[in-house]
Amino acid sequence: MIRDNLIEVLHEMEEVTKLFKLEPFDIYIIGGGACILGEYTTRATVDIDFVDLGYPSKYGKVFTLLRDYDMLEYESTLLSPTYKQRAKKLEDFKYISVYILAKEDVVASKIIRLVPKDIEDLDQIVPTCNKEVLNNIIEEILNRKDLFESKKTEFINKLKIFKEKYNV
After folding, report:
1. What gap in Å lies between CA 59 and CA 80, rounded to an integer?
2. Element at 48 (helix H, strand E)
3. pLDDT in tens, 7-28
4. Is 48 exposed, middle or buried (0-12, 13-18, 19+ CB in 10 A)?
5. Domain 2-166 coded CATH 1.10.10
6. For 71, how many CA atoms within 13 A lie in the half-sphere containing its CB?
7. Domain ranges in the chain?
8. Using one digit for the tens of pLDDT, what is the confidence trace for 88-112?
9. CA-to-CA distance for 117 and 146, rounded, in angstroms?
10. If we measure between CA atoms, which residue out of 48, 44, 40 comes closest to residue 129?
11. Is 41 helix (H, G, I), strand (E, B) or coil?
């Protein structure tokens, strides 16, 4: 149900983009939205996030359809600089390009919080991850110079707990 609703909203975005004759664009879904669309977890969520790629204001009519979702700026989000290389393109869309982050990128982005709902997701996702890829992503995040220092500090604090719990 939630998956269908999210797909429907994304299709509406695609239609509005065409209607207003805007150039096609990319959108990268992260977190719970990626878990739903990629079927990484079975937990239902309405916490849908996507990465702000610095969209021009002319796309406001399109992104108003995502008003209930969160647009996350790259500098405050635990993403590897290479996340786009691993993202999976959803083939349901022909005009806009909708991507979901790879499991390993979703896992890395959840390390900073480790609240019960994230742990529930991690318990399902981590066993199916490529741990070498996951560790490379973690290293890339730790080496980011453009990540807010407070986010990096919190990530480092939770990383030890994550690595021990999941043997990563």
Report:
1. 26
2. strand 48-52
3. 998 999 999 999 999 999 999 9
4. buried
5. no
6. 11
7. 2-166
8. 999 999 999 999 999 999 999 999 9
9. 28
10. 40
11. coil
